[in-house]
Amino acid sequence: MFESLSGKLGEVFERLRKRGALTESDVSEALREVRVALLEADVALPVVKSFIDGVKSKAVGQDVLRSVTPGQMVIKIVHDHLVEMLGGAGEGEEINLNAVPPVPVLMVGLQGSGKTTSTAKIALRLQTKERKKVLMASLDVYRPAAQEQLKILGEQNNIPVLPIVAGQMPVDIAKRAVQAAKLGGYDVLLLDTAGRLHIDETLMLEVAAVRDAVQPHETLLVADALTGQDAVNVAKSFNERVGVTGIVLTRVDGDGRGGAALSMRAVTGKPIKLIGVGEKADALESFHPERIAQRILGMGDIVSLVEKAAETIEKEEAERLAARVQKGQFDLDDMASQLKQLRKMGGMSGVMNLLPGVGKIKQQMAQANVDESVLKRQEAIIGSMTRDERKNPKVIHASRKKRIAAGSGTSVQDVNKLLKQHLQMADMMKRMSKLGQKGFMRSMGAMLPGMPGMPK
Q1: For residue 444, how far is the Cα from the chain centroid?
Q2: Does the pLDDT of residue 325 top 70, yes or no?
Q3: Are 27 and 2 in contact (CB under 8 A)?
Q4: Which end is more exposed in the chain, N or C (fewer Cβ atoms within 10 Å of the end residue's Cβ)?
Q5: In the CATH hierarchy, which fold is given to the domain comprising 304-450?
Q6: How many CB atoms are located within 10 Å of the residue 145 CB?
Q7: 195-218: b or e for each residue (b if 16 or more CB lie within 10 Å)?
Q8: Is the domain covering 103-294 a CATH 3.90.550.10 domain?
Q9: More confident site: 106 or 23
Q10: Homologous superfamily of the 3-86 domain (CATH)
């Protein structure tokens, strides 16, 4: 997300940094380019105008133009305004469950925006991270198999779903769900409402009737980030007619512009609470305005990277590998473990998006057409080796390479590449074990080009 905007803003700010002093015309010229970049990213025109006016009033002040690092000062002002536009400094707003259980949460939005999938993702998140007992209920009696879809998602993720009663209408289903949640001792009730292909009076009246029947503590609008400006208009309409308390943006991983995210808070005044970043059931993240602003400006998001690592990396495995690295040991089993953990964190692109100052490396990856599936192929190659081959790669000669390639569905060339990468990484681990902790940190930068899937 934001790749296009981040790249264009990065070019503008790079030119500002290179200049020792800035004139008012320099700042105005830079802000014109920022304005174009925001409009191209599909940010709503009124939001862009307000943003540029706010930045300009501060950026052309004497304190900035006469400062020691005027370029950095302008970037800081843009950063602060971005944070404000996205929802303000501090931690992002989570789903508010501060009410008498079962807490009703109403999911609304257009058909195809990802409501049903998001309902299951939120239920899994509340169940695993917050240890809540969650019940899901589908009120969509119009879309074919919509209720069955939620039932299947519930079964896949071990989340209870209200039994389907044929012929029952949405308001009656909602009332039955509330009763079932009370009797079952549930903490949260997620109600997945029906959508339409476009906003119409029937849809709004039905959602309003369900809202009146259950009195939801939260009404979350699910909007597709890929629809750009239309997503903003949908948010505005639902907020005016139904009353939205928060927004869930889906398909954020497929949106290189990010205009919907940048516009929604400003247009509706409602916070973006969660963003969908993939198809998997756990691919849902909290929306933190400050962290998102840092990503847009190429500053990285180390906090999110650490949180993601803490969630995905197995502590015992990490400690085992650290102990081996200190001894200068690193075999193919260790490499397979690293590949697995890297894939859990979203692959190379997922990690790179959160690292500061790696814009050029990301561009190189894009130009080199780095295929993220290379991680899976390399895991398959290592999985086709015997235990002795993984522990001692030196025994892998021509005939063994052919067998490994055939077993993993790859080529001998792929096997050779993997063995070469392992040799480079093993050599780096040995050097790092001699350098100590400080040397270890310095060497991490040198390791990046040698990591699997990275361009040279």
Answers
A1: 24
A2: no
A3: no
A4: C
A5: 434 Repressor (Amino-terminal Domain) (1.10.260)
A6: 10
A7: bbeeeeeebbebbeebbebbebbb
A8: no
A9: 106
A10: SRP54, nucleotide-binding domain (1.20.120.140)
